[in-house]
Amino acid sequence: MTMHHVGRRSRPLMFGLLVFFVPMWATLVIGSRAASESPEPPKIHVGPRFEARFVAKPRIPVSGIRLAAGGTPQVDPIEANGPIFVEWPKPDLALMFTGEQMGFLEPCGCAGLENQKGGFKRRMTLMKELRGLGWPIIAMDAGGLVRRYGPQAQIKLGRSLEGLVEMGYEAIGFGDKDLRLDMLSEAANLDPNPLLSANVGLVDFDAGFSRRYHVVEENDIKVGMTAVLGEEGLAAAKSMRDLVTLPAEQAIAEVLPELEAAKCDELVLLVYGDVDEAKDLSAKFPKFRWVVAGTGGDEPPIQPEQIAESGATLIEVGHKGMYAVVVGIYEQGSPKYRYQKVPMDHRFEDAPEMKQLLVRYQDQLKTLVTAAGSFEPLTGKPMRLPKQGGGWVGSEACADCHSTACEIFMHSPHAHATTTLVELDPPRHFDPECLSCHVTGWNPQAYAPYVGGYESLEKTPHLTMQGCENCHGPAKNHYDAEMGNIDATDEQIERFRADLRMEIVENEGNMEGQNFKGGKVVQNCMECHDLDNSPDFDFQEYWEREEEPVKHYGMD
Q1: pLDDT tens per residue across span 188-213
Q2: Residue pair 346/9 in contact by the 8 Å Cβ criterion
């Protein structure tokens, strides 16, 4: 059996960081909705001086994009990432493994949706399609649902667990960063509760908030499973409240007899640790046929490794939820086991159940922000200004003296950055992880505003857009000195100018053989166009391109 899903379309996944192609690919993937189904999004306008001088490049309607594309994605996922389950007969049982989601409920970044992998919406569609074909599935996650701390990470942890439960996961291990949050409160609300760990107990091993092992029978095949937090994560967890811990080896030795007594046909060990640690535990406990390494490489290998010391199969799951690994079991087949790494690409449509989960997630963020009248419930107090500059004035203030540069800016996707978030479905302009590269005056890596940075569409409309000051720095001192709003000496005026000046050095870029360490401009770009969100970013190519240019210099 070959599953290709050719020609499928997808609704938008979360885009948290600004990219140069934002307007084009955002409209490409946003499904159109009738006006009666959703309210008109808030209008975002540039200031009157921008309106008078420049005309922003028009945004192409969604319907026009779809017609131009002929209903076919620009990138063929089968050609890009390969077919899946080629010549697979229906298995007697399928084991699905995931892990190290790292907070990516949906992919977020700059390459265009059709070039990205991941997301709960696609994963649930995969599971629904396989179950629709009659495949019995047992799904297990090795842990690592989040990688940050704070209120937004806590909300994301809860929604991640909610989503996995809705998908029917039988086991979810603990990552150390998961445990730094209030996992106990989340566990108390899970029904059913698939949390699993042999060596970490919430409050106590017998408190009922998680299990030390679990046995599931599907299609007359009994699968026993347990999970452990690896040595590095365990060291971090020992200082945390409301936890009891044991060394992984001791814990496995305690639960393995229980699994053997259950006469399981297949035994699975989930290790939230790297490949070497998973192999070491496998060698000491060779009864487990499947050993999952929850941390490690970016993606699973094409074929799994057989662990020489135990004969077990090592499963690597990659990170950011970009892949799932499926093992097919054929009790009378030859071969008895088949392996497939499944890319979560746009061959899978968006599952409406997971879309609603993401709507609830965004609504939860919006409620906190609007109730407080600020982003402080999610981000804490604003950060100090990144460097001297006196504060933020917005890109329109630059227009009088830098009209050529501003005209280039107004014809670039940077000018539409906030609009992109507002027009997504659901909107993302209450999400700090998205706003940090879509407005002016936020720290893109800390996901938090600077003092005086963007607050809301209503309070700070002049700080919408991915503005000039995000690259050059706060410009209030410079603007006030040039406009005569403050008394400044010639020396001060020149210093204010120098504070904002950026120059490209020879061969500046982020690719191999290019000057990255000495490049102030490219380093600034990669605050947003980082490896998480823009892995294909090539500074020299983007800077020199002819369509939607970003290259600009100084005063008129």
Answers
A1: 999 999 999 999 999 999 999 999 99
A2: yes
